[in-house]
Amino acid sequence: MIYRSLSVCENAILDARTNNISLINIIEEIQIMGFPTLLPHLSIVAQLQKEPIDNGDQFVFEIRIRINQRQLFAQPVTTNFMGRPKNRLILDMNGVPITESGSLIVELVRDGTVVLSSSIEMRLPERPQVTQAQ
């Protein structure tokens, strides 16, 4: 299996007519105003490609989400290539709780091994320096 990419965005839209996918607002960094907070919607998109040695069309993966070292979510997902060499695995999530700063890490796992991951830095906004007049 060739693991092409893992993207995390606010929304992924799949065009039924062309089978093209649009990733809306790819998330690379999150500026949080305070903790705890909630990310209202996340779409996770993995692009996969079978190799000649990959038998069958259905493959089981696990999506894991953690903040720093604390796991928030783990869910098995099955993808079906339906006879094609390439496929996309798309998972939409609503209401991801954020309780601390650091890294939000999304991982695609196969047979216990992380095959793709994305790390999103979360931070509080910088406060402007206030200087006193003399």
Structure commentary:
The chain is mainly β. The chain has one domain: Macroglobulin (MG2) domain (Immunoglobulin-like), CATH 2.60.40. 0% of the residues lie in helices and 66% in strands. It is built from no helices and 9 strands. It has strands at residues 2-14, 21-26, 29-31, 37-49, 58-67, 70-80, 86-98, 102-110, 113-123. The strands form 2 sheets. Strands 3-9-8-5-6 form a 5-stranded mixed beta sheet, with no helix packed on it. Strands 2-1-4-7 form a 4-stranded antiparallel beta sheet, with no helix packed on it. Strand 1 and strand 2 (21-26) form a beta hairpin. It is elongated, with a radius of gyration of 18 Å. The mean pLDDT is 92.
Strand order within the widest sheet? 3-9-8-5-6
Question: Can you tell me the overall shape?
Answer: elongated
Overall structural class, as computed from helix and strand content, comes to: mainly beta
Question: How many strands, what sense, and barrel or not for the largest sheet?
Answer: 5 strands, mixed
Architecture in CATH? Sandwich
Measure the end-to-end span. 66 Å
Q: DSSP helix count?
A: 0
CATH class: Mainly Beta
